[in-house]
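hey team, just a heads up i'm posting the complex here instead of the shared drive bc the drive is being weird again. everything in one block, sequence lines first with there labels, then the predicted structure for the whole assembly after. its two chains so it's a bit long, scroll down
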Amino acid sequence: MKYLKIILSAAVIAGMTIGCDVLDSPEPEQSLPTEEVVNDAAGMENLVTGMYDGLQNPNISGGNFNVLPEIMADNANWTGSFVNYARQASKNMLPSDPQIEGWWNISYREINTANVLLQSVGDIDDPTFTDDDRDLIRAEAYFVRGMLYFELARAYSMPWDHTADNSHPAVPIRTDGVEGVDDFEDLPLSTISEVYEQAESDLNLAADLLPDVGIRDNQRATRYAAIGYLKRLHLERGEYEESADLASEIITSGQFSLTDSPGGPFNNEFSTESIFEIIHTPQDNPGVNDGQNAFYTDADRGGRGDIQFSSDFTNALAATVTDEQQAEIDAAGYIVFDTREDLIDRDEDRLSTLKFTDGTNNADNVMNMRYAAILLTRAETLVETSASIGDVPEEAYEHLNAVRTRSIEVTDENGFEFNELIEFEPGDFDSREEMLDAILLERRVELAFEGDRFYTLKRKGLSIDGVEPDDERIKFPIPQGEIDANPNID
Amino acid sequence: MLKRAILILISMAFAFSAAAQQTVTGVVTDAETGEPLAGVTVIVTGTTVGASTDIDGQYELTVPEDRNTLEFSFVGFETIREDIDGRSEVNVVMGEDLQELDDVVVTGYGTLSRRQVTSSIGQVRAEDIEDVSLGSADQALQGRVSGVQFTSNTGALGGASTIRIRGASSITASTAPLVVIDGTPVTNPSAGGSGSVGAGLGADTGLNPLVNLNPNDIESYEVLKDAAASAIYGSRGSNGVILITTKQGRADQPEINVRMAGGFTQETNRYDMMNGQEFTNIWNDAGVNFFESAGIGELFGVSNEDAWFDPALNAQIFGTNFGLDPNPDNIESADWMDAVTQTGYMHETSASVSGGTESTRYYLSGNYKWEEGYIIGNELNRYSARLRLDHDISDQVQVGLSLNPSRTDNFRVYSSNAVAAPYTFSALYYPNVPIYDDDGALNFGVAPNANVAFAGQPVANIEGVDATANITQVLGSAYTRVNLTENTVLNSDFSFELYQIQEQIRQGDQTTDGSPNGQGISSNEQFRNYNWNNTIEYANTFGDHNLNLLAGISLQENQSTSFSATGRAFPNDRLRNIDSAADITGATGAGTSFSFAGYLSRINYTFRDRYNLTLTGRVDGSSRFSDENQYGFFPAISAGWVISDEDFYSNFADYVDFLNIRGSVGQTGNAEIGNFAPLGLVGFGTDYNSVPGGRISQLQNPDLRWEKTTQYDAALEFGIFDSRLRGSIGYYIKNTDDLLLDVPISRVNGFTTLTDNIGAVTNRGLEFDLSADIIQTEQFQWTSSFNISTLTNEVTELVDGEQQIFGQNLLREGEPIGQFFLVRYAGVNSENGNAQWLTADGEITEEYNLNDRVTVGSPFPDFFGGFTNNFAFRNLDLTVFFQYSYGNDLYRADGGFTDSNLNSLFNQSTRMNDYWTPENTDTDVPRPILLEDNGAQASTRYLEDASYLRLKQLTLGYTMPASITGNSTVRFYAQGLNLLTFTSSDFNGSDPEAASGGNIQATDVFFQLPQQRTVMLGVNLTF
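-- predicted structure starts here --
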C-alpha cells in the first residue's frame, strides 16, 4: 500500500513536467510556413502556379479584363441585374463598386507574389535548382507583373496624351515583396509615364527569358505573349514604329496562323491563332455568377445572359463589305456572307455572342491575345507610319485581307469561292484615314466581346459610346478601400 | 517508590503517545425522522482526512494529534461542527437546512463552501431543472443566473445558441464562454466562430455542440462570472466559464429513478401572410401604379387601369401578362405556411440507478429522447448513457472513472436565408397558386402573375430535401486522488472527448437547389480532445487561520479533421449516396490542431472564519501564440468579509442576519484566435491547369496575442428574516483591450486587411439576485426567486477611431458593438402615398439617402433576467418561471420582403393590406408600386423593439401520498414550455428571441424560426 502511494505520487509529479512539449506539436496541416516555401525550389514552383491561379480570378484576366471594357464601349450593352455593372456600362462607376475594388486588389495581390518570387529566387540553396530554372521563374514573374501594371495603368488613369508630359497620376508602383507585417508601406500614385516604364522594363525582361515557342507544354505565357503586351503598351503611347516592329516579330516567327473559321479560336482551346489564353476548367472556374460565361452566355444556353450586343455592332457587322464591293458582287450574281454572323445569336430574347457558350460548366478559356489582332495592328501601324496613302506598303493590305477572307465568303450558286472580291488593294482608299477606318472597322467586328474596343477608341481619341476620352468618367476611380487605408492617396 | 513513579511516568508517556492518533466512530441521524443518514461527509476540520457514513449512518475516522473538531456536511442539511474533546464516539443529529440548501460551490479545480466564496459565481442546481425537458443542456441557464444572457438562435431542433456572460467583450474573436464538464474543457469547434458545429443550412444556423449532453445527468452548473473566478482558466476565461458537474453515486441503498414524458410541440408564432384575394388586390393596384409612374397609359392613350387589365397590352410591356384576374371566383388561395408546419410529438425516457458501499459508489443512467419539431420533417433523436464509478482503494487513495457515450440523429431543416428553407419560402410563395394540381401531385406551375423567381415550391422543398446530422460523442475520464499526508492531496485526472458529426444532405430533382437532377453533399468532421490535470492541494488550520493552497498543471490537446464531397446528377431521388452521382463536383479535406499548457496556483486564506482572501495566478501558454508571446500571466485577487459574524454586528442581527461584502479584481484572456494566427503561411489549393499551386495566405505577425480583460467586481450578500429573504447585489466593470480587429491596409501591399490587437471594449452592469421563502407552513409553501441584470456595452477604441459599417450595424467608438445605423423611416405622405424619411437633421424628405443614417436603437438589452415561483400545497406543486429581456432591438431584414408593399415580388404580410390609396390616406404603409422601392429600403421601418416577457415554464405536479407509495416516490406532472410570450406592440417578427450568430450582426435576423412550444405529461418514479 505504501509503495502504491509512492508510485502514484511519483507518476503524478512526473506528469507535471511534460507541459512544454505539448505546445510545440500542433502544426498547420493545409499550409506551410512562408519562409520554408520561399527558400525551396518546389515551393517557388508552387507560388508561380498560384500566381497563374490568380490570373484566373474573374476580377482580372479571368473575366473582367474582357467584360468591363467591353460593356463600357459600343459593341455591347449590359442588361443584367447587377447594378454595379450597370454603372460601369454607363461610365458612372463608384469608388466602392466591387469590380473596381476587385481589379485593383487582385492585381496587387499577384504583383506581390511576383515581387516575392523575384526577391527570393536568387537565394535558394539547392544544387538541382539550375540557373535556367531560376530564369524561368523570373520570366514568369516579370511577365505577370508587367502585364498587371500595364492593365492597371490603362484602366485607372486618363489616356496617355491627357497631359503633355504624361505626368497625370496612374497607380502606385511597388517592386519589393511583402511577407510580414514589417514590410508594409503606404505608397502614393505614380505617373502614367512611370508605370508604363515599369511595365515596359518587366515585359522586356520577360521577353528575353520566356521560352521562344508558340505554345508551351504547360500552356503558360511565351515570349510572344510578352512581345504582344509590349506591342499593346507602345500602341497606348502612340509609338507606332515600335509596335509595328513588335507585331512584325510575332508575324515572322511563323509560330501562329489564322484558323479556318472565325469561331476556331473559341471552339478549340489553344488553336494555331492563340497567343495567350487563361485556362478555366469544369472544376476550376469562376462559377455561375461571375466571369465571361456567366455574363455573355445567354440564359437558354445556361448563362445569365447579362450582356447583349448592340445595334451599333450589328450595323458595323453589316458594313464590313463596302458598298463598292457589294456592287461588284451583285453584278457578278454572287452571294456574300460574313461568317461572323454565325458568332452571334440574333434572336431577340438572346442577342448574345456565341464566342462563349459553355453555360453548363462555365469553363470556356479567356482569350487574352490572338493572332488576328497582331495582323490588324501591323496593318494599322504600317498605315500610321506612312506619310500618305500611296506610301502604305502592300503588307498592310495583305494582313487586312487575310483577316477578312478568313471570315467573309463570296460564293456562286455552285459553291465556288471568289473571296478576292472582298479584298482591298492599293487604290481602293483615297486617304490614310479611309484605310484606317476600314482597319478599325475590321478590328471592331473581329475582336468584338474580347475587351479590345474600349482601348482602341481611347487611344485613338475617339468618343466612347457618347463620352469623350478626356472625360474623367472613362477612368476607373481609385477604390474606396485604398483611399480609406492609404493616407498618401486621397 | 521512585521506580513506581518512573513506571507510571513511562506508562503515561506511552498512553500519551498512543493518544497521538485516535480513532473516532459515531452515527449520524436525521433530526426529523431519527433514521440514520448515509453518505454524510465527515471531515477532521483543518485537514483532508475524511470519510462518508455508510448505510447505517456509521463512520470511522483516524483523527490526528492536536485536532479536535469534526465537520459533518450533507446536501440539504445544516453543516455541524462538533468538538471531539477526547471522546471516541461522536454521534450527531443533523437537521434540514432550510436556508441554504447547498453549502458547496464548485469552483475551478476544486470546491468551496458558500461562506468562503469571494468571487462572483452563479449556480443552477439539478432540482431547479428537474423534470424540465430541455432542448439542450445549456438552456438551463436562461433567466436563472444574473449576468448571463442566453438567446436561442433559432427554433429548429438542436440549433445553436448565443450565450454571453456579462456582455460581449470581443468583436472578431468568439464571445462564447468556456464550457468545462467535470474538469474537461469541451470542444469549441470554430475558433473565432459563433460556437456552433455542422453545416449552416441557410444563414448560420449551425448545431449546438452541447445537444448530446443529457441534462438529467447534471448535478449543478456553476457560472464563473468575474475574473477572480475565471482567472484560474487563464487565457480562456475572458468570456466567463460554465462549469458543469455531473451526478455521482453515494454510499447508500441503490436509488432507481425513472422518468417518462410525452407531449406535443407547436410553433409559438406564425407570420400572417396575405391570402389569394388580398394578394390579387395589392398586386393589381401595384401594377396599375407602376403603369402610372411609367406613363404607360398615356403612351397608349387609355387609362392605366384599362392598360393593366388588358392582357395583350400588359404582355407587350412585360413580355407576358403580369395582370391578375380580379374575379374572386377565379382566385385560388393556398395556405403554404400551414402546408409545411405540423403539430409534432415528443417522448422522453430517462432512467438512472445510483448507490454504493462505503468504498465504492456508482451512478448509471440512460436517456432516450425523440422529438418532432413543428416544421414537417424536423426531428431529433437522442440516445445517451453514462457510467460513473468512484472507488476507495484505501483510506488514502481514491480512483474513479466516468464514461458517457451519446448520439443524436438530427433530421434538420433549412432556415433563414435560403430558398430551401420551408418557413422562409412558404411565407413568400404566392398564395394564389394551389399546392397540388387536380391529380393530387405537387403543382409546379407558373404563378398566374407569370413571375417565377426560383425553381421548385415549398412543399416540394420539404419532401425532396433530406439533411441529416448524426453526432456521436464519447466523453470519458479517469482520476486518481491520493492523500499524501493528512493535509495534502494529490489529484490527477485524464479525460478525452471524441466528437464526430456526420452530415448527409440530399436534394431531389424537383427541389430548388437540386434541380434539374439532384445534388448530394456528404461530410464528416471529427474532434479529439485530450486533457490532463494534475493538482496538489494543501489544507491546514493554525488557530484562527485557515489556509488552502492549490498548485497544478493543466494540459490540453485538441485535433480535428474534416472531409466532404459534393455530387450532382443523380439518376433517381431514391439513391442517397455520393457513389450514385454522375459528377463529383467537389471534395475537401482538412485538419487542424491546438494545445494549451497552464501552470495554475491559488491561495485561499480565511481568518476567524469571517475574513476571506483568495489569490489566483495562472501562467498559460498555447500553441496558438507565437514564440515571442507564448506565455501570459493571469492573476486575480478577491476578498470577502462576513460582517454578520462580527461581535459588533449583534445589534443588527435581528434585522439582517447575514451580511457579506466581497470584491475582486483580476485579469483573464480570450485565446479564441485562429490556431496559427501569428505565422506567415502559404496556403494551397490554388492550382492552375491541374498543376498544384500555392499562395501567401497569411502574413507573419509575431506580436499577435490573446485579448485581455481586466475585471472589477464588488457585491453585497445578505440574508433577512432569518435568511428567509436572501440575495445579493453586485456591480462589475469589465475592460477588454488588445481586441483582435481586421485593420484595413493599403492594398498595394498585396493584402486588404491585417489582423492585429488593437481595439478595446467595456462592459458594465448591475446584478441583483433575490430568493425568498415567502410562506413556509406544513400545508403550503411558496418560494420565489428573482434576478435582474443591467448591461452597458461600449466600444472604447477602434483602429484610428475609424468607424466600420457592416450592413445595418456599426462599429464606432462610444457606441455598443453592432449599434444600428439606419435611415429613419417617417411614415407616409398622406397626400401621395410616398414613403418619407428623416434627414440627419431631422427634416422630413421623400428622398432616401444613405448619408441620412444615424445611430438608433440598441442591440443590447437595458436589463434582463428571470422570475421563478414555486408553490407546494400538500401533494401538489406548481412552478411558474418567467424570463424577460427589455430594451433590445432586432433588425428584421425579412421586412424588406414581407413588408415591402410589393417592391419585392413575393407574398406580403397582411399588414400591407393597409396600403395607401386615395381613399385610405391615413396609414403608414406606402403606396404599392410594382418593382419600385417605395419604402422598402433598409431603414428603421424594419427595426423593431424585441423586448419580451415569456412564460418559459409552467409545471403542475402531483406526488402520490407516501401512505400508498411507501419508500418510493411517484410524481405525475403536466408541463408547458414557452406557453406565453408577451412582446412589444412594435414587434412584427416571428420571435423576439433570435440571433444570427457573430458579434456585430447578431441582431440582423432574417426569417428566424420561432421558438417551439411544448406541452407534455410525465411521470417520475424514484425507488
